[in-house]
Design a protein that fits this description.
Elements lengths: L1 H21 L13 E4 L5 E4 L8 E5 L4 E14 L2 E12 L2 E8 L6 E5 L2 E14 L7 E13 L2 E9 L8 E7 L9 E8 L7 E9 L2 E4 L3 E6 L3 E8 L10 E11 L5 E12 L4 E3 L1
Antiparallel strand pairs: 1-4, 2-3, 4-5, 5-6, 7-8, 8-9, 9-10, 11-12, 12-13, 13-14, 13-15, 15-16, 16-17, 17-18, 18-19
Length: 281
């Protein structure tokens, strides 16, 4: 009888687990179009026989490997705060064309090529950090990364936080000018954002100097209808109101009180760039 109860318990647990997986929604940042080229972000990404983490491994691919998305599968795998579909892909390796299945969380969110370098933007993992408001508690936060690669050799990489899974509705990645900063070849901007009120978006600027990636302080923007908002931005030297070799940080915050009156806060910081690093003025 005990064995029967044990079997029934395991069956119910598996059913609940399967239902939980079925109800999991993929983060929009990992939605890739079929019949489109893509790149591998996570090094040694496993290619599987079927779209399942328990399926046999057919191959492994390195960062910056070109692949072609053949089909987006219905099955979803969630690791930490990252939830992504499985994809059937094809690729060429050592002169041979092959096919298999890859988890979408191991692919680049976006990538760019500039001045002979490949710049890859992707999500790396979920980590636990101390809550800013409740210091005794921990919250799960995603870590993102940008890699600079030339001829499939990693030149440099940086990582930064991107919030919880709610902030992964979509992402963008762009190459901008050097913003007239001394010795800066170009500027990269990676953004992730949610679509609902109260869900923050994250802007990460990265400077390229002498084959080194240098992160600026991260910008966070969040709002809740017309009740509250928190806005952060950078003003670069080539922007209107810019100052030579100085990055101006501006913050504005508004919150309505119980009488529907607006209370605003402002803050300004000056990051002076000396050609190799920046200091707060």
């Amino acid at each position: 009888m005990k064995s029967l109860f044990a079997i029934l318990f395991i069956f119910m647990l598996q059913t609940f687990s399967a239902q939980k997986d079925h109800d999991t929604y993929a983060n929009g940042i990992f939605s890739f179009e079929e019949n489109k080229a893509q790149k591998i972000f996570t090094d040694n990404t496993r290619i599987r026989q079927l779209p399942d983490v328990a399926s046999p491994v057919l191959d492994s691919l390195n960062t910056n490997q070109d692949i072609l998305i053949i089909k987006k599968e219905d099955s979803i795998l969630k690791l930490g705060e990252r939830a992504a579909n499985w994809y059937k892909v094809s690729y060429q390796k050592e002169g041979k064309m092959s096919e298999g299945y890859v988890w979408g969380g191991n692919l680049c969110v976006d990538y760019r090529n500039k001045n002979g370098y490949d710049f890859l933007f992707g999500l790396t993992k979920t980590v636990k950090i101390k809550d800013g408001q409740f210091k005794d508690e921990e919250v799960q936060q995603n870590r993102a990364g940008v890699k600079m690669i030339k001829e499939n050799i990693l030149i440099d990489e940086v990582s930064f936080e991107t919030g919880s899974g709610e902030s992964l509705n979509y992402g963008t990645f762009n190459v901008e000018s050097g913003h007239k900063l001394k010795n800066v070849e170009l500027t990269l901007k990676a953004t992730v954002s949610g679509e609902a009120c109260g869900i923050p978006s994250y802007d990460q600027y990265i400077l390229l100097k002498d084959k080194k990636l240098i992160t600026l302080p991260q910008l966070i923007n969040v709002g809740d209808a017309d009740v509250y908002y928190h806005s952060e931005q950078f003003i670069f030297p080539n922007d209107k109101g810019g100052v030579s070799n100085t990055i101006i940080f501006k913050m504005e915050e508004m919150e309505k009180d119980e009488n529907d009156r607006e209370k605003k806060k402002y803050a300004t910081k000056f990051y002076v760039w000396d050609g190799s690093s920046f200091n707060i003025k």
